[in-house]
Amino acid sequence: MKGTVSTNQKVELEYQVNTSPGVLFKRLSTPHGLSEWFANDVNLSGNVFTFIWDGDTQKAELVDKKENKFVKFRWITEQNEAGHHFAFKLTKDELTGEVSLTVIEEVNEEEDIDEVVSLWNYQIGELKRLIGA
């Protein structure tokens, strides 16, 4: 795993995942797939995903996706304002066949970068455990 933080408060984390892009994409882009590792439950209405963690809910709009390549969401705030983006990008090395998952998240200046990194490390660890990677 490699991590970088740019000056505009964007966190990028890269993970090697031993699976195919197709298997990984389903876990990143569907309510069922996301509920297996990202949240306790996930509901979809139109292009708005509702993530539920121990009674706490957060909504995110699916902004864009390309099958087996990337998924991009935008958090929706309580005031229904557009919030920060987070995205999953899949890359397959043509030479080695290795699949990389890059998590990209915009964060507020006051957010603890170490906490964001730690949370994603845990979540992606759950994902890798689930798919046997």
Structural description of this entry:
- This protein has a single domain (2-131), classed as START domain (Alpha-D-Glucose-1,6-Bisphosphate, Chain A, domain 4).
- Strands 1-2-8-7-6-5-4-3 form an eight-stranded antiparallel β-sheet.
- The chain has helices spanning 21-29, 31-35, 113-131; strands at 2-5, 10-17, 41-45, 48-53, 56-66, 70-76, 82-92, 99-106.
- The radius of gyration is 14 Å and the shape is globular.
- The chain is α+β, with helices and mostly antiparallel strands.
Q: Summarize the helix and strand pattern as letters.
A: EEHHEEEEEEH
Number of domains: 1
The CATH first-level class comes to Alpha Beta
Using the alpha-carbon principal axes, give the shape: globular
Do you know the CATH architecture? 2-Layer Sandwich
Protein topology:
Elements: E1 2-5, E2 10-17, H1 21-29, H2 31-35, E3 41-45, E4 48-53, E5 56-66, E6 70-76, E7 82-92, E8 99-106, H3 113-131
Antiparallel strand pairs: 1-2, 2-8, 3-4, 4-5, 5-6, 6-7, 7-8
In short:
This protein is of the alpha+beta class and about 130 residues long. It has helices at about 20-30, 30-35, 115-130; strands spanning about 1-5, 10-15, 40-45, 50-55, 55-65, 70-75, 80-90, 100-105. The model has no long low-confidence stretch (mean pLDDT about 90).
List keywords for this structure.
8-stranded antiparallel β-sheet, globular, 3 helices, alpha+beta, 25% helix, Alpha-D-Glucose-1,6-Bisphosphate, Chain A, domain 4, 133 residues, single chain
